[in-house]
Design goal:
The complex is a heterotrimer. Chain A is mostly helical. Chain A has helices spanning about 1-20, 25-45, 50-75, 85-105, 120-130, 140-145, 150-170, 180-185, 190-215, 220-240, 240-250, 250-275, 290-320. Chain C has three helices and no strands. Classes of the chains: A mainly alpha, B mainly alpha, C mainly alpha.
């Protein structure tokens, strides 16, 4: 029965995607992308991927929309259509889609527990997590401990993106398209969003912290928490104006957050070496190996959350300040 | 009823190609980035669909008792992929903003014309 | 007792679904932005209360109900605010309401 719900959501997703490509107003396309992200997040939840659904909703529907809108404010809002040679691309794309659909007939049955993907490493992870790490959320256990090296690489990718955007947009003046008073004013003259926003921001921050520290017991973790906390502070920046937001969290603090996150992660890894184990071996962090693993996961999730918060806020401020 | 299960994969194929079409056929740079984002979402859908086990639940151990769990490994991979995707999108948007400032336009053919001059 | 709760939650969920449908039809059929938003706000307020109320009856007295109440409060607080922000942004951008005759009294801030 729930399969029908999934099919309905997927059909809506395809319709939204077609609308995104066909509209020539980029603002509309970005809003529709937010809707598409939420539809995909709902679908992920139906497919038992709770962590991924939370991440897609927080990052895809929330932060991605803000970044695109920030970029649109600095570029143009409409796309100029140039229709030539589109027939060839359409034919190629349609042919590729048909080939892919033909290939899907060879897939194992949907949800088959004997499919090859379910039989090699996954049962080992599901079996050994209570033994080695003993936390309920297997995804966090695998992300933080069993595949911790991948997550270290990911944190460095996020850090690199933050530095890249700061290099591109951080220095020097730009075209000055938006007057300074307007940027610093925010929504201060609009009473209702301001009051409600002020009520909500502490609760959003609290929820972000809840998601961060409950990553081991339920869906959650560093990435989602970083995105939620960054969203709360972006809301504050939108309501109160850029200048006040920068006085609350100055640029130095943001750069510090961006750097301290990967530093924390790497430090935990090095601590493993210094205490006698391997790099990123958390078992040696405490006298009881299981407690050591839990402590290690807690610390690196904090590192991830700090990095994501700092980078997302840094990118937002780089876009917002560029119009000055 | 096998077709119902295949629907996810068909939607993956269609969404992949829609995103790819936007990257290839649309001259506007921001539209290309949006298409790239759709392309990535389609790939996420593929992986998560492959990980589903029927009768399973999210891979979080409940308070008591064992249960059938869906595969946690694709979820870990896609979690990383979502964050990396947003990072590359942010960087791409930064580049688009700079291109607009230098060339005055974000349409591909206009930029090519300015370059050829 | 549980049959009564089930029936009640069934009724609430159906009514909630109907109000979401009404909101959707209204958002399609109304003539201009402001009336469309007014129709869509039915989904946000009445639809949310009914659907979440129905689910709360299914969940009984548990942690899930408290989380649902928190979600409901958050929705009831943010949806009208975003409608207000959207409407005043539209007014600032110059979208005039659909009126055959007569003036729009409120001046843009």
């Amino acid at each position: 029965m729930i399969v029908i719900f999934g099919i309905f959501l997927l059909t809506l997703l395809v319709i939204t995607a077609i609308a995104i490509v066909r509209t020539d107003n980029l603002f509309v396309a970005v809003m529709l992308m937010g809707i598409a992200s939420l539809l995909i997040a709902a679908n992920f939840f139906l497919l038992d991927a709770a962590d991924v659904a939370l991440t897609e909703a927080a990052v895809g529907a929330g932060i991605s929309t803000v970044l695109f809108l920030g970029a649109l404010a600095l570029t143009s809002e409409r796309e100029r259509a140039k229709s030539s040679n589109r027939l060839l691309s359409f034919i190629v794309v349609a042919a590729a889609a048909l080939i892919l659909i033909y290939a899907t007939f060879d897939k194992p049955r949907f949800g088959d527990p004997e499919a090859p993907v379910q039989t090699h490493v996954a049962p080992w992870y599901l079996e050994k997590t209570p033994e080695y790490i003993d936390i309920p959320n297997v995804v966090t256990a695998v992300l933080g401990s069993f595949r911790g090296y991948d997550t270290l690489g990911e944190v460095f990718v996020v850090f690199t993106a933050g530095i890249g955007v700061l290099f591109l947009l951080g220095g020097g003046k730009a075209t000055g398209t938006v007057p300074e008073e307007k940027i610093n004013e925010g929504l201060r003259h609009h009473l209702i969003p301001r009051v409600v926003g002020r009520i909500l921001i502490p609760f959003i921050l609290l929820f972000g912290l809840y998601v961060q520290f409950h990553g081991e017991y339920g869906p959650g973790g560093g990435f989602q928490a970083g995105a939620i906390i960054a969203a709360a502070i972006i809301l504050f920046a939108l309501l109160e104006g850029e200048k006040r937001a920068l006085s609350v969290l100055p640029e130095r603090v943001l750069l510090g957050l961006m750097a301290c996150g990967p530093l924390l992660y790497g430090a935990v890894g090095l601590a493993g070496i210094l205490l006698g184990g391997n790099f990123l071996d958390y078992s040696v962090l405490s006298s009881d190996p299981v407690k050591g693993q839990q402590l290690g996961i807690l610390l690196i999730e904090a590192g991830v959350g700090i990095t994501v918060t700092g980078v997302l806020l840094g990118i937002f401020h780089a876009f917002a300040a560029r119009g000055r | 009823m096998e077709l119902l299960g295949l629907y996810n994969y068909w939607v993956f194929a269609v969404l992949l190609m829609i995103g790819f079409y936007a990257v290839v056929a649309k001259p506007n740079l921001v539209k290309k980035l949006i298409g790239l984002s759709l392309f990535q979402s389609a790939v996420f859908l593929l992986y998560i669909t492959m990980g589903k086990v029927e009768g399973g639940t999210a891979p979080i151990f409940p308070e008591a008792g064992a249960a059938v769990f869906s595969n946690p490994l694709p979820q870990v991979l896609i979690l990383t992929a979502i964050v990396v995707g947003i990072s590359t999108t942010a960087l791409g948007l930064g580049i688009v903003v700079r291109v607009k400032e230098e060339y005055g336009s974000i349409e591909e053919h206009e930029i090519q014309e300015i370059d050829e001059r | 007792m549980s049959a009564l709760l089930d029936t009640l939650s069934w009724v609430l969920l159906t009514l909630g679904g109907l109000s979401v449908l009404v909101g959707g039809i209204g958002a399609l059929r109304m003539p201009d932005l402001y009336t469309r938003m007014h129709a869509a706000s039915v989904t946000d307020s009445l639809g949310a209360i009914l659907v979440l109320g129905g689910i709360m009856l299914q969940a009984g007295w548990s942690l899930a109900t408290i989380k649902l109440i928190a979600i409901l409060l958050f929705l009831l607080l943010t949806s009208p605010t975003s409608s207000n922000a959207l409407a005043s942004a539209a007014l600032l951008a110059g979208t005039r309401p659909f009126a055959e005759a007569g003036q729009d009294e409120e001046a843009p801030k």
